[in-house]
Each structure stands twice: as structure tokens, then as C-alpha cells.
Specification:
The chain is of the alpha+beta class. The protein is built from 4 helices and 3 strands; from the N terminus they run αββααβα. The protein starts with a helix and ends with a helix. The mean pLDDT is 89.
């Protein structure tokens, strides 16, 4: 039963944090940042926020900007008033898209080699 509550909180936090980053923060490094997921610990003390962005070359700058903005984001979560305890925020770059592209390249290479061997 508690896990259902955590899933609901994660869903609400995902929407809220996406909204905060996209519309309330005025940092040039945070343009084109997408929150891809959130993971809340069972004791509600830590919230891991997964993000991706358009320009993958400045991931460190984006991560630093997000960490600097964590106080503002926590304040906005507190204003939303759907949690008593505001979790510690941990930002992590989501490498899923990057890994998917790498897999696509590998599959394309395998298919090309397979077609070469068939002829």
C-alpha cells in the first residue's frame, strides 16, 4: 500500500519539477532540459531526478545549474503542500537515450554484416 502512495507522489513530483525547471527557473543552462523520471526512497528522504537535455556536450554545466537551483525547487515543492517532509534532491543525467542510440548503431552494423554475408 505504501508503494502505491510513493508512485503517486513520484508522478506528482515529476509534473511539478518539470514545470518548475521549464517555466520558473531563469538559467540559460537549463533551456531544453527534460525531466525523464523521478525515484523517491521509501522513507521519502531522497528524491533522485533523472534529466536529459538537447545539447549533450554541457552536461556538467546543466548538472551544476540544477544543483544550484535545488533550494528553489525544494521551496516550490514545499509550496505545493502535498508532502510534509521535503526530500533531499539528487540530480542524475539519464543516459537511456544515449545508450539506445548506441544499441541502434550496433544493430545496424549487425544487419549490414548479415546482408553482406547473405550475398
Amino acid at each position: 500500500m505504501a508503494r502505491i502512495r510513493i508512485k503517486r507522489l513520484e508522478s506528482e513530483l515529476l509534473k511539478l519539477i518539470s514545470n518548475i525547471i521549464n517555466y520558473k527557473l531563469r538559467d540559460n543552462n537549463l533551456t531544453m532540459v527534460t525531466v525523464t523520471g523521478v525515484k523517491l526512497t521509501n522513507d521519502l528522504s531522497y528524491l533522485k531526478i533523472f534529466f536529459s537535455h538537447f545539447d549533450e556536450t554541457n552536461t556538467e554545466d546543466v548538472l551544476n545549474s540544477l544543483n544550484k537551483s535545488s533550494g528553489f525547487i525544494k521551496n516550490e515543492i514545499a509550496k505545493a503542500k502535498f508532502m510534509r517532509k521535503i526530500p533531499q534532491l539528487i540530480f542524475e543525467y539519464d543516459k537511456l537515450e544515449e545508450e539506445a542510440r548506441d544499441l541502434d548503431k550496433i544493430f545496424a552494423k549487425i544487419n549490414a554484416e548479415k546482408k553482406e554475408n547473405d550475398h
